[in-house]
Amino acid sequence: MRSSQLPILTFPVALACMFCSCGQSGSTNTTDSTQATVTADSSAKKYLSQPLVNHIYTADPSAHVFNGRFYIYPSHDTATGIPEDDLGSHFDMKDYHILSMDSIGGKVTDHGVALDIKDIPWAHRQLWAPDAAFTNGTYYLYFPVKDSLDIFHIGVATSSKPEGPFKAEKAPIPGSYSIDPCVFTDDDGKSYMYFGGIWGGQLQRWNNNRYDSTKGNRKPEELAIQPRMAKLETNMKYFDGPVKEVQILDEKGQPFHEKDNEKRFFEASWMHKYKGKYYFSYSTGDTHNLCYATGDSPYGPFTYRGVILTPVEGWTSHHSIVEKDGKWYLFYHDVQLSGKTYLRNVKVTALHYNEDGSIQTIHPTL
Ligand code: FUB
């Protein structure tokens, strides 16, 4: 990640409420130090949808339906004064808040702090994009965070309630690395984690599941780095076997090269299933697309099919896809409220399939 090209905007909070959907904002069980800095886009751009909440900054929304209700597991963006750099050090998040709502457009509840970095024994800094799962009567929160050596690993925390609070395990998931976990449970009850992110997400330093801090980003003519996956044990806390590469192939069955950065994987894995097909979706990072590829097995390979979401305002793009009552939704984020790349806000919009199973491309501005 790196700095946005966007201007920093300085509209007051009151004006922000004219642009954002205050009616959709939820109960604010907590206050946040960045609240006073919430700003609005002075260009009066027409956005496809409005922020789900505006009392805190939220990003990377992993949405699930638990007990008939939407639960959204986002990153909690705050301004901590860390300068922006190409490693994303300015994404300096310290806790998670979970949001929930009965229906799209309904009241959004912020359930307060669900997990704090100080309660994760091995964590040093930067709580990035989480995901959640439910099985065995337990809710699992998966999160990437840097350890004391500044290396990202993925941890897991558990709760009896979808909104937490969550209690973290004492150590990261053995064999885990990099960022952006997505946990998908198939119809047969087997669960898989997809993960990884290049550049600030450190995936370029991991080859054959070994860490090498000297490995830099791939050159344009080199093969693109592929995301990773592992089957989870039934206890959902360990990998059941070695981490594998996920093959994303072009329409001719060939892997992408780094120069194919409009289509190659960067970060933000998501898996969902539609009419028996597996849909692996992801962000292309520096070209800001959300793309998808489909396959016949949770292990892949996956064939590139197209763009789900064209670039949002901001540098990062991250999403989830979820179904409720026969309708499909894309949760995503942009920087409508702040204009700053590291102070994002989550949104939702309807997602539609064509007859052939392809996804209709969504444009985040009108
Ligand atoms: O929120 C921090 C990072 O930004 C996430 O892990 C990436 O997916 C990007 O959205």
UniProtKB/TrEMBL annotation:
PROSITE patterns reported in the protein's UniProt record: PROKAR_LIPOPROTEIN
Site residues by UniProt (Important for catalytic activity, responsible for pKa modulation of the active site Glu and correct orientation of both the proton donor and substrate): 180
Source superkingdom: Bacteria
Keyword Ubl conjugation among record annotations: no
GO biological process terms, semicolon-separated: xylan catabolic process
Pfam families linked to this entry: Glyco_hydro_43
Matches recorded under CDD domains: GH43_CoXyl43_like (cd18619)
A Gene Ontology molecular function term of the record: hydrolase activity, hydrolyzing O-glycosyl compounds
The entry's keywords: Carbohydrate metabolism, Glycosidase, Hydrolase, Polysaccharide degradation, Signal, Xylan degradation
N-terminal signal peptide: 1-16
Family indicated by similarity: Belongs to the glycosyl hydrolase 43 family.
Name under which the protein is recorded: Glycosyl hydrolase family 43
